[in-house]
Design brief:
CATH class of the domain at 46-194: Alpha Beta
Shape: globular
CATH architecture of the domain at 46-194: 2-Layer Sandwich
Radius of gyration: 16 Å
Distance between the termini: 37 Å
Length: 216
């Protein structure tokens, strides 16, 4: 996760790296649960996608939640098809490092996932999280439908108000329609389960997010 001269401006499609037609290889199963990363998933399962800094620590924040079926890390919200980690870190793909969360809405609400998202990082830092600087570390919620969009926007508004009370600057979390999700390389999947002492650059604000307290 340590790179220098990180770009903090998202490239245009014309500037972005060309990428490739084929998906890069990744793991078949979740290192912790043994469940298949790409499915099949249980009937009724839903998908949520979040970017909140280095995806090693971000993924761990979600796989530990009851009701989460499986998680995977990857790249989203950029221009380059099937990018590699090195390409994303160059700042020339436009992608964010994200966590894809497959969950059972009967066991955990989307609002509860939003609460975990906001409380696991500082969403006021723009193109960075702590010492990790670059477009791939921006705060982002990538929604599957209008229901998720409304919930995400309401949570962002509520948390912004709470953070303002504590003296924080404006929340910079982007909320966008979920586009293509590209699975990251095998060694990134569940990295902190494979390397318990590995790097985790995430740090929350310590301010409680006022959503997801009561399950749907």
């Amino acid at each position: 996760m340590f790179f220098t001269r990180k770009k903090t401006t998202i490239p245009t499609p014309a500037e972005a790296l060309p990428g490739r037609d084929s998906a890069i290889p990744t793991a078949e199963r979740h290192y912790v649960s043994g469940r298949p990363l790409k499915g099949p998933y249980p009937e009724g399962a839903k998908v949520a996608t979040f970017g909140l800094g280095c995806f090693w620590g971000a993924e761990r924040a979600f796989w530990q939640l009851p009701g989460v079926h499986v998680t995977a890390v990857g790249y989203a919200a950029g221009h380059t098809p099937n990018p590699t980690y090195e390409e994303v870190c160059s700042g020339m793909t436009g992608h964010n490092e994200v966590v894809r969360v497959v969950y059972d809405p009967a066991e955990i609400s989307y609002e509860r996932l939003l609460k975990a998202f906001f409380e696991s990082h500082d969403p006021t830092q723009g193109m960075r999280q702590g010492n990790d600087v670059g477009t791939q570390y921006r705060s982002g919620i990538y929604v599957e439908d209008e229901e998720q969009r409304r919930a995400a926007e309401a949570a962002r508004t509520a948390y912004h108000a709470r953070l303002q009370e504590k003296g924080y600057p404006a929340v910079t979390t982007e909320i966008r329609e979920a586009g293509p999700f590209y699975y990251a390389e095998d060694y990134h999947q569940q990295y902190l389960a494979k390397n318990p002492g590995g790097y985790c650059g995430l740090g929350g604000t310590g301010v409680s997010c006022p959503v997801g307290v009561v399950e749907a």
